[in-house]
Structure formats: structure tokens, C-alpha cells
Design brief:
10% of the residues lie in helices and 52% in strands. It is mainly β.
Length: 194
């Protein structure tokens, strides 16, 4: 192997290791006050989601700065509808940071593990948590079925400024520049079907 080839291999290896180390890893968190779990099939995989109840907050404790990912799925009741709307509300230490209404459409090849209900497509919500220990509260407002959720915390600190690196819910007093603080930007959720 020539010296040039060896240098190229070392550079590519270093770039790969650096990229792999920088990739976010998500650690699943169990809520302190879970109302039970719902087993959902995704292809051949069974995944447990925590059942949420309208008007009842489900809490996790997070030491920031971190990004929290909340993945929700709607489990349809006995109605014959192929879609339903529900609202996801997220608060940090009692202060609302996300309130988004989404429409759940039935997902192909997804159902409860006991096949008693159809399952909606996955919706993802991201919330940035500032420095310190905080309580993240997730509360749904469903329409006729059950809202389920999984909360994950990014193992890597968010940018040291506390500012999001992509659109998400942030606290209004966190300013990413010298401009005065502003209201949180519009949050985003992405329908995905794994």
C-alpha cells in the first residue's frame, strides 16, 4: 500500500468515526406516571407505547440542555373511521411549549399486538429543554380512541447556546442572537411510517 493510499484510508476512517460519534442517539424514557402500555406491531416488530389519557399529564424528568423526541400514535376505537384528529400538548415545568393538533390516518401493516385495533401513522414532535433539571409533561386531547406515546431523550447535549439546530418548540426567553427574545417558532411534526 502506498503512502498516499494509507493517508486516504486514515482520513476516510477518521471522517466516518467522527460522523458516527456526532450522530444523535436517543434514550427511551419511561414516564413516572404511566397509565399502562399498548403493544403495537410494526411489520414483524412489537413496540410498546405508553397510554395517554385526555387531561392527564404524563411526566418525564430531563436534565438539559437536551432535545426530547415524543413519538405518538393514535389507536382507533371501534368506530369505522379511517382518520381522527387529536391534540398533543407539551409543557416544561408547567409552561406550555407545544400545542399541536394532528390528523391520524390508519397505517398499513400496523395494529395492536392483539389485533383489537387499527393504529394511526406515527407523529414526531421535538422539544428543546434548557439547562437544568426539568419536568416534561405530555397531555393529549383525543377524539374517540387512544393516544399513545414514546418519549426519548437525545444522549448528546443540544447546542451549548440552548438554541435549536432545527425548527422545534423552544422557551420564549431563549434567544439565538442578540435580537430580543421572541415567542417560540412553529413546532413541526413529521408523519413517518417506519
Amino acid at each position: 500500500m502506498t503512502r498516499r493510499s494509507l493517508i486516504l484510508v486514515l482520513c476516510l476512517t477518521a471522517a466516518f468515526v467522527t460522523a458516527a460519534a456526532a450522530a444523535p442517539r436517543w434514550r427511551l424514557e419511561s414516564p413516572e406516571n404511566s397509565l399502562g402500555t399498548v403493544c403495537i406491531t410494526s411489520g414483524d416488530t412489537e413496540v410498546s407505547y405508553h397510554r395517554l389519557e385526555a387531561g392527564t399529564a404524563t411526566n418525564i424528568q430531563v436534565r438539559g440542555p437536551r432535545r426530547v423526541k415524543i413519538v405518538t400514535r393514535y389507536v382507533f376505537g371501534p368506530e369505522k373511521s379511517l382518520q381522527a384528529g387529536y391534540t398533543v400538548c407539551v409543557a416544561i415545568d408547567g409552561r406550555d411549549v407545544l400545542d399541536e393538533t394532528v390528523t391520524a390516518h390508519t397505517a398499513d401493516r400496523r395494529s395492536t399486538c392483539d389485533e383489537s385495533g387499527r393504529v394511526g401513522v406515527m407523529r414526531r414532535f421535538y422539544v428543546d429543554v434548557p439547562t437544568g433539571l426539568h419536568t416534561i409533561e405530555t397531555t393529549p386531547a383525543p377524539a374517540g380512541g387512544t393516544v399513545t406515546a414514546r418519549s426519548s431523550v437525545n444522549d448528546v447535549n443540544v447546542r451549548s447556546s440552548g438554541c435549536p439546530s432545527r425548527p422545534s418548540a423552544t422557551w420564549p426567553w431563549i434567544s439565538c442572537s442578540s435580537k430580543p427574545a421572541r415567542a417560540p417558532p412553529t413546532t413541526f411534526s413529521t408523519p413517518t411510517i417506519p
